[in-house]
Write a structure and sequence with these properties.
Number of helices: 8
Structural class: alpha+beta
Organism: Kitasatospora xanthocidica
Order of helices and strands: EHHHHHHEEHHE
Radius of gyration: 22 Å
Strand content: 5-15%
Protein name: Transcriptional regulator
Number of strands: 4
Number of domains: 2
Distance between the termini: 33 Å
């Protein structure tokens, strides 16, 4: 099958698997996954039920703008004195409040990371080294047998220079910009680049 066939995606059954999607969609999902990993991996490791984990979360919530609202949104109605006691570790919240504190912490951390996309861009740019992109071809099993490309394989590229624009496009939900970026990425493949216009999965090594 020539790469021209990808201009009419689904003609030979590739769309029978909902996991086969345009690269712009898979790239957006991969960016969201990488952002979630950054949020989690850079967060507090100690469980909220431990004294250390509780104090760390309360200090974050009480020292960052929006912490009080995050606690309220999570259903915490404690008095200022109780909040201070939790922050000092001199009083232990009930299990329901512990859960609320944990929810408030992660919500606020996610909000703060999203509000500062520069940190995520820096993470992906990796001091100019870029980020490894692993490209999984579409599932060929659903394609009409005479049109299958069983020789397609997972491809891996070290991608630089696109990440600032990619993060902006993800944050804005700009599918057209993500499509242009994806075209730039697969343009670094060999003459079979068109076979990776649609993919089953994209993984980012970040």
């Amino acid at each position: 099958m020539s790469t021209d066939g990808w201009k009419n995606f689904g003609r030979y059954g590739a769309n029978r698997d909902p996991g086969n999607v345009h690269g712009k969609i898979a790239l957006g999902r991969a960016l969201e996954d990488a952002l979630e990993r950054m949020i989690v991996e850079g967060g507090i490791k100690s469980p909220p039920a431990t004294r250390r984990g509780l104090i760390a979360r309360m200090r974050y919530l009480t020292s960052h703008k929006g912490g009080a609202q995050a606690l309220a949104d999570a259903g915490i109605t404690a008095t200022p004195a109780t909040i201070r006691a939790w922050t000092k570790g001199t009083q232990r919240p009930r299990p329901a409040n512990l859960e609320g504190i944990d929810t408030a912490y992660w919500n606020l951390r996610a909000h703060n990371v999203l509000a500062n996309p520069g940190a995520f861009k820096q993470h992906l740019n990796n001091a100019g080294k870029g980020t490894r992109v692993e490209i999984h071809p579409i599932n060929q099993d659903v394609v009409d047998e005479p049109r299958r490309r069983d020789n397609l394989r997972i491809r891996s590229l070290q991608v630089r220079y696109v990440w600032d624009d990619a993060v902006d496009a993800m944050a804005a939900g700009d599918a057209d910009a993500l499509e242009e970026i994806w075209d730039d990425i697969i343009g670094d493949l060999d003459s079979d680049w068109g076979a990776y216009t649609y993919v089953s999965h994209i993984g980012l090594g970040a």
